[in-house]
Design brief:
By secondary structure, this protein is of the alpha/beta class. The protein contains 14 helices and 14 strands. The chain folds into two domains: about 180 residues, Rossmann fold; about 180 residues, Rossmann fold, CATH 3.40.50.
Length: about 375
């Protein structure tokens, strides 16, 4: 009989983020397991149910933010019906937030069912409000087992639940897809980028935790030594107006290009066109954008925060600089752009690491063994 697992996630199709991409990549690589995915009906007009080859999405509750806030209740009510109807022995929540709250309620009323919690959180957890941390601790302590996407999050689990059973299973990338991407310089022509320009790229949301203000300041410093420098910012977010004003104040309108959201399939092409990927993170659960850049074959520069140190060893698989240190960041960028031998070493070791440890196929096999053991 096909194993059936019930998933709780605060967001899923059509919304796409790191956690949602991780879940979908794992699901479609485990065809011998059937997944019931319970999620809030956040977007108006989406179907209440949507079927895939080995999954069924159940969208519950009202639309909009209210649906997210009420998801612990509506998710639990839907789970209760599914558990009565089907042979479900495992529930799995992605993130200790609203989805985790629904799983927490379900576990309370179905204590024999095994509760797996996956931590994907990328924010600085210690700096969040006491109320958020209080409920997160309740959820973590109720889980039978926890998976964390990084050693940083594993340590956090032990800090609030010393007796927890924790396994690190990282997020990953479609290594072959990114590795096999061909360089297409035509994609840069509409942006006014010439062949002699050196290109820095950042992919991800325009939010405070990604340290984008520090990156823009660093570009201003790099420009003094390399006038033909360009920064591509791929992604949208609440900081767009603030960052755009900062760019204008620093006189970098010709150097910083806001690309906004782009199709996921085009992301590898933009990465391949760049000379270096940079994200001076202030906090990070793992940092999938780094892994994508590493798989494509460009050097990466980050900060030693959160899960980044799981895969960036300074001088081997990338370069590290201190958070909030724009001069240090500028020096690291100049070092990569001026030292071809170093760049080739970083790319070679980074690609080997991603292929071995962070490919989705290998990660899906880890989850399959994990489910079987439980």
């Amino acid at each position: 009989m096909t194993k059936r697992i019930l998933i709780f996630t605060t967001a899923f199709r059509p919304l796409i983020g790191g956690s949602e991409l991780a879940l979908e990549n794992i699901i479609r690589r485990l065809p011998n397991i059937f997944f019931d995915v319970i999620t809030p009906r956040l977007v108006r007009g989406t179907k209440k149910t949507e079927a895939g080859e080995n999954f069924l999405i159940h969208r519950v509750g009202p639309t909009g933010k209210l649906g997210k806030y009420l998801f612990p209740i509506f998710g639990w009510l839907k789970a209760r019906k599914l558990i009565r109807k089907n042979d479900i022995s495992i529930i799995h929540a992605y993130q200790a937030s609203y989805g985790g709250g629904a799983a927490w309620l379900t576990k309370i009323f179905n204590h024999k069912i095994k509760f797996i919690l996956t931590l994907q959180e990328g924010k600085n957890l210690a700096k969040q409000s006491w109320l958020v941390n209080f409920f997160r601790k309740l959820i973590i302590r109720k889980a039978d087992v926890v998976t964390a996407i990084s050693e940083y999050l594993k340590k956090y689990v032990y800090s609030v639940a010393p007796r927890a059973k924790v396994t690190v299973i990282p997020n990953g990338v479609d290594f072959q897809k990114f590795h096999d991407t061909k360089k297409d310089e035509l994609i840069l022509e509409p942006l006014g980028i010439k062949g002699e320009d050196r290109i820095i790229i950042h992919t991800g949301r325009l939010v405070k935790k990604n340290g984008l203000s520090d990156l823009i300041e660093a570009v201003g410093l790099v420009k003094k030594d390399l006038p033909r420098i360009k920064l591509l910012l791929v992604g949208g977010g609440i900081l767009f107006p603030e960052l755009k004003t900062r760019v204008e104040d620093l006189g970098l309108k010709n150097e910083v290009i806001f690309l906004g959201e782009i199709e996921n399939d085009k992301l590898p092409i933009y990465l391949k066109a760049a000379d270096v990927f940079v994200r001076p993170s202030l906090s990070e659960g793992l940092g999938n954008s780094f892994l994508e850049a590493m798989a494509v074959g460009i050097p990466v520069i980050g900060t030693p925060v959160g899960g980044i140190t799981d895969f960036i060893t300074d001088g081997e698989t990338g370069l590290l600089c201190r958070p909030g240190d724009s001069p240090g960041l500028a020096a690291a960028i100049l070092k990569v752009l001026s030292d071809r031998q170093l760049t080739e070493l970083l790319i070679k070791k980074a690609q080997a690491l991603v292929a071995e440890k962070y490919d989705w196929n290998a990660i899906a096999r880890q989850f399959e063994k994990f489910y079987d053991a439980i």
